[in-house]
Predict the structure of Sugar ABC transporter permease.
Amino acid sequence: MTSTPNRTPKRAGARREAFAAAGFLASSYALLAVFVLVPLVAAFVVSLQQTDGFGAGEFVGAANYARLVEDPLFWRALVNTLLFTALVTPLSMLFGLIAAVLLNSALPARPLWRSLVILPMAVSGVATGLIGILVFDQNSGVLNNLIGFLGLPAIDWQSSPGPAFASIVIATVWWRTGLNMLIYLAGLQGLGPDLYEAARLDGANAFQRFRNVTVPLLGPTSFFLLVLNVIYSFQVFDLVFVLTGGGPGGATSVLVTYAYETGFVTRDQGYAASIGMVLFLFALTFAAAQWRASRTKDLVE
C-alpha cells in the first residue's frame, strides 16, 4: 500500500512566503497609494468643480472639459507640448546614443569625457533654466555676444517666437543627453563581442555594424528611453518657466505652464485640474500604446 505524500508543510511554506512577500510590498503599495493614487483621484474630483482653491467648490460636472474644446490657449499649449516632445525626444536620444558609442570605445581620457556629458544631470531644471538665461539672453547673453563677435546680427531669443522655442529645445536636449547616454552606455556594455566579431569577419564596416548590430540589440533600451523621454517632455515645466515663462505671447507655453498659470495666477483651479487630467491621459495613452507595440513585436519574434 503506497502512502500519499504529505503536502501540508509545502502549502504552509508557500503561504508563509506569500505573506512575507506581501509584507515587503505593502510599504511600496502604501507609498504609491498615498503619493500617486490619492492625489490623482483628488485632482479628478477637483476637475469636476468650479473652485479657486479656497473653500468648497461648486460641482459643474464635465463643464471644465467642455471649456477645453473651445479654449484656443489650451490648443496652442497642446501643440507646443507635442512639438516640444517631437523635437526633444529624438534629438536627446540620438545624441545620447552617439555619445554612448563614442565613450564606449577606447578614447583617450574617456572617464573625463563621460563625466562632462553626465554633468548636466546633476543640475536641476531651475538651475538649467538660469544657465540658459546666461547663454540665450538677447541683450547680454553669451551666444549673442559670440554672434556679434563674428559680425552676424543678434538673435531675439526672448522676443521672437521661433528663437524662444528653439532656446528651450536646445537647453533641454543639452540637459537630457547625459541621462540617455548613461542608459545607452549601460546597454552597450551588456552586449557581447561575438556578434561584432562575426559582422567584422563578414566584411561589415563600422557604420554597418552600428546599424545592423548595435541599434537592433539596443531596442529594449531605446524603448525604455522613448517612454521615459516622452513622459518627461509632456511634464516639462521648470526649465520653460524659468527660461521663457511661456512667452513671448504664449509661443513657448506648454500644458503644465498653462495649467500653472490657470491654477495659481487666475485661481481657476478646477479648470487647471482638468488640464492636468488631459495631460495624464496623453502620457498614459502613449505609454500603453508603446508597451502594446513592444509586446506585440516580442510575440511576433
About this structure: The CA atoms of residues 91 and 214 lie 18 Å apart.
